[in-house]
């Protein structure tokens, strides 16, 4: 398992937290969103998914991974 | 039909817009949220519901009607 923290812009409320965490869960990734820091910690299995696909999933929800 | 614009604090993104508009729809109220202005225009039938109940429905979603 790999653990990485991403900076994500555009998250503003608990709906955003849920949207991101649910999306990540669907692709088998555990996400911990920190609204105050504007960050998402992602825990994933590198043999299943890569970081680029995780970033795309977050961006598809309308947020910017910076 | 009565038309009233409420000032609402705490709305920050399109998820918030959807949450409020969906909640209002459930109680038979048409709501138009303006995120930039922090306002919700509500259009409702006074013989069905009063403004106090509408404010409560919005506050139950976690927002402040001011």
TrEMBL record, chains A, B:
What are its GO biological-process terms?
A: copper ion transport
- Select a single GO molecular function from the record's annotations and give it: copper ion binding
Mind telling me which InterPro entries this protein's record contains?
Answer: Cu-bd, HMA_Cu_ion-bd, HMA_dom, HMA_dom_sf
Sorted alphabetically, the keyword list is: Metal-binding
Query: Which PROSITE patterns does the record associate with it?
Result: HMA_2
Q: Which residues form the HMA domain?
A: 2-66
Per the record, the domain of life is Bacteria
What's the protein called, per UniProt?
A: Copper chaperone
